Amino acid sequence: MSVAKILSAVAFAAVLPLAHAADITGAGATFPYPIYAKWADAYKKQTGNGMNYQSIGSGGGIKQITAKTVDFGASDMPMKAEDLQKNGLIQFPAIMGGVVPVYKLEGVKPGDLKFTGPLLADIYMGKITKWNDPAIARLNPGVKLPADDIAVVHRSDGSGTTFLWTNYLSKTSPSFKEAVGEGTAVKWPAGVGGKGNEGVASYVQKINGAIGYVEYAYAKQNKLPYGLLQNKAGKFVAPDDATFKAAAAGADWKSVPGMGVVLTDQAGNESWPITGASFILIHQKQDKADSAREVLKFFDWSFKNGAKMADELDYVPMPDAVVKEIQAVWKGVTDTSGKAIY
């Protein structure tokens, strides 16, 4: 089934009343939405239980789970250990993928353009405003670059995709770190904002000369040309599941409190520089133990049955060894009496 059909099916399911006792609700990051939608569709067919997920951005997901209006939240920016403790939350990674630079430039095909972190930083700071700027031309000899204005597109909502993008640009450009910094929402010096990965993809599709950043599945889904990116080893690589897996290979999940590993700018010749995990947030002590148990059942099923579906959308499923670490974290989720629910 195509991604468009899956999204359509889940969107239809989302308007149905939550009649089934085992249905659960989640909200947050748009980055993992295509794979969560695909898992939810398959899970519903196999178990009869629904998972209704609102793709509202990581900032919205953190707000909703903190306010206990959903059964779980999702964020591409891991919460710090002190914030998890303060809000009584447990966090675990559910899926990994990549953020990619996309563009619309007449006559320039997918993979024709090469970018570096400092070059993208200068574009997003408004320092480079024309596609035929010498800095772009030097990196792309042989590519016919027009004198068109660059239309910068960024996110308008609180976004984990923005966190990964700005985290990477801050690591590779000291001036970007000082002027803009990193976060789910920053004060952009240039450009227009689109809501969600969907909004950014839509703007880039409509504006000739546009550049934006989206999760890879959205670039594929919308057939948007994407650029190659220079990694920490100095190699120009293309985004795909192999380069995302290369970036994730060296992750040490045990060493970071709350498993909050950030995978940008990883070492390795094949590593895609803007790789990241998407995290699930759930309350440690549960007033609604049955719903929390169903959340963990859904992700347990997804880890056991969803790897092939993740590969089809160019996400990176969590390795088996990491899933065991995640399941150990689940033992900390309890009912109001302190009894583990899973």
TrEMBL record:
The positions making up the signal sequence are 1-21
What domain of life does the UniProt record list for this protein's source? Bacteria
What biological-process terms (Gene Ontology) are attached? phosphate ion transmembrane transport
A family per Pfam:
PBP_like_2
Transmembrane regions: none
The answer to keyword Transport applying to this record is yes
The PBP domain, residue ranges:
22-299
GO molecular function terms noted in the UniProt entry: phosphate ion binding
A single GO CC term for this protein reads: ATP-binding cassette (ABC) transporter complex
UniProt keyword list: Phosphate transport, Signal, Transport
What job does the chain carry out? Part of the ABC transporter complex PstSACB involved in phosphate import.
Q: Which family does it belong to?
A: Belongs to the PstS family.
Q: How does it assemble?
A: The complex is composed of two ATP-binding proteins (PstB), two transmembrane proteins (PstC and PstA) and a solute-binding protein (PstS).
Name of the protein this chain belongs to: Phosphate-binding protein PstS
